[in-house]
């Protein structure tokens, strides 16, 4: 136990976490040349392309020092705010963290939010200035920022380059020197923390664990404390580049357990594993049921694909426990599913996986957050869909989820950023200069306002320089109304949104204008209206036109004529029939693109 070091790497996105992790594996000869890939830890295509580690993994390295062998377990953490609960559990499995800061970028929002999690868990922080090979690196300034942030001594900061490998041996030294060995009682009843799990189509669920107390042997009967389910530990082992089976895992170890579990929903990150016969007294603190916070309808473009879509969703769910879905139907879009996501990135990932792994073309409706409706009768329920909105006469009030947002930016952009946050109903709670030209702004704002276009706007206002991270701070009452869109008098349920009363008028007007641009002229006038209840608040008209695609063929060439008609028919496939109006797919996302 005294020669084990469990650590993670925390960093803002693109500051070099994956690159440095690969270097550590390199220097410790954990990967043979044959096994080398561009980025070993990111093994999903999608991850590699986005440069984000979506799912956390762990890997064990051997390190020799003064003729003594050390076992280093690197636990990888997902970098995005949507997965912050998973980050917190990975951090809870460690004693130390490498805090990486890009020497050209300085401290960013995610650096701070991840650091807070690490400090909460009492981790030893090793600050590392990365990318010092770059000519525009600014080591002195960034060092000052780190000293301010951590209250550490400048001499504690290591300088490195994941690219050239400079400073990497010193990092390994520091891990052994500074990160404490695991504590825990080897003779106590088993207490193991689940910090991640992964679906494997041959082996079922692989559960990643950190043993806090006691030990586990192959074949043991174990209990998952929070889910109260019992299993046999069919296989246990450690995580090298692949799983290496072992007979026993001891206090302080990081490893995996395979126990015949078939779906991800049975294994909950943060749960405690103990022995059935000799259980530990209590579960490990910090367990939470992750709840999706963003909801959207997902519909097949071709309604015949509904069953295929269901099969695809079920497969995705096998390895993504945080995805939820239930059937719903829309007058406009037919049969589909109401899906729950952790956040917007998670939603995008699911959409992309449906497309890539299952070849499913889907329409995703406007996302909304989870609201709580209180009725006059005193009932209370969650709303995941604008159509859940109770009758205004029965409704007492609605609560919406709030977040605390941290924004770090060059000071020259502060004015426009404040205007943006205000337009999103944000309330500033703190403003702090990190250096003379970098500011940290703290806002409280409704999650629902972030869901639309906040992030894109933040980036464009700040020319890409501002960074942003958030965490949830509970529900607050809000004056929300349901805005409906009518096409020729008929409500299009998939275009309804819940919106703050003060913004409804302007929003309805912009929606109608945008739809007017997107809905092609047809053989009759189309009235586009925005309505709150029975009250029409905006209106536009798409004028009729008769478009005859074969007109310019002068009757002559019949094959050409047929081709054109077929082409037109294909074009129509990407349209949805709403009453007598054909609505293009992109119109359903119009609301996301309002300027
Ligand atoms: P992550 O998002 O924190 O995992 O960051 P990555 O490891 O994917 O690195 C982001 C980008 O920075 C990639 O293009 C890397 O090649 C590059 N990069 C990472 N470390 C260094 C470094 O030390 N020096 C230089 N010049 N580039 C680096
Ligand atoms: Mg990465």
UniProtKB/TrEMBL annotation:
<dbReference type="InterPro" id="IPR035654">
    <property type="entry name" value="LepA_IV"/>
</dbReference>
<keyword id="KW-0472">Membrane</keyword>
<dbReference type="InterPro" id="IPR000640">
    <property type="entry name" value="EFG_V-like"/>
</dbReference>
<dbReference type="InterPro" id="IPR013842">
    <property type="entry name" value="LepA_CTD"/>
</dbReference>
<dbReference type="InterPro" id="IPR038363">
    <property type="entry name" value="LepA_C_sf"/>
</dbReference>
<dbReference type="InterPro" id="IPR000795">
    <property type="entry name" value="T_Tr_GTP-bd_dom"/>
</dbReference>
<feature type="binding site">
    <location>
        <begin position="14"/>
        <end position="19"/>
    </location>
    <ligand>
        <name>GTP</name>
    </ligand>
</feature>
<dbReference type="InterPro" id="IPR006297">
    <property type="entry name" value="EF-4"/>
</dbReference>
<dbReference type="InterPro" id="IPR009000">
    <property type="entry name" value="Transl_B-barrel_sf"/>
</dbReference>
<dbReference type="GO" id="GO:0016787">
    <property type="term" value="F:hydrolase activity"/>
</dbReference>
<dbReference type="Pfam" id="PF00679">
    <property type="entry name" value="EFG_C"/>
</dbReference>
<dbReference type="InterPro" id="IPR035647">
    <property type="entry name" value="EFG_III/V"/>
</dbReference>
<keyword id="KW-0547">Nucleotide-binding</keyword>
<feature type="binding site">
    <location>
        <begin position="130"/>
        <end position="133"/>
    </location>
    <ligand>
        <name>GTP</name>
    </ligand>
</feature>
<keyword id="KW-0342">GTP-binding</keyword>
<protein>
    <recommendedName>
        <fullName>Elongation factor 4</fullName>
        <ecNumber>3.6.5.n1</ecNumber>
    </recommendedName>
</protein>
<dbReference type="Pfam" id="PF06421">
    <property type="entry name" value="LepA_C"/>
</dbReference>
<dbReference type="InterPro" id="IPR005225">
    <property type="entry name" value="Small_GTP-bd"/>
</dbReference>
<feature type="domain" description="Tr-type G">
    <location>
        <begin position="2"/>
        <end position="183"/>
    </location>
</feature>
<dbReference type="Pfam" id="PF03144">
    <property type="entry name" value="GTP_EFTU_D2"/>
</dbReference>
<keyword id="KW-0648">Protein biosynthesis</keyword>
<dbReference type="InterPro" id="IPR027417">
    <property type="entry name" value="P-loop_NTPase"/>
</dbReference>
<keyword id="KW-0251">Elongation factor</keyword>
<comment type="function">
    <text>Required for accurate and efficient protein synthesis under certain stress conditions. May act as a fidelity factor of the translation reaction, by catalyzing a one-codon backward translocation of tRNAs on improperly translocated ribosomes. Back-translocation proceeds from a post-translocation (POST) complex to a pre-translocation (PRE) complex, thus giving elongation factor G a second chance to translocate the tRNAs correctly. Binds to ribosomes in a GTP-dependent manner.</text>
</comment>
<dbReference type="GO" id="GO:0003746">
    <property type="term" value="F:translation elongation factor activity"/>
</dbReference>
<comment type="similarity">
    <text>Belongs to the TRAFAC class translation factor GTPase superfamily. Classic translation factor GTPase family. LepA subfamily.</text>
</comment>
<dbReference type="Pfam" id="PF00009">
    <property type="entry name" value="GTP_EFTU"/>
</dbReference>
<dbReference type="InterPro" id="IPR004161">
    <property type="entry name" value="EFTu-like_2"/>
</dbReference>
<keyword id="KW-0378">Hydrolase</keyword>
<keyword id="KW-1003">Cell membrane</keyword>
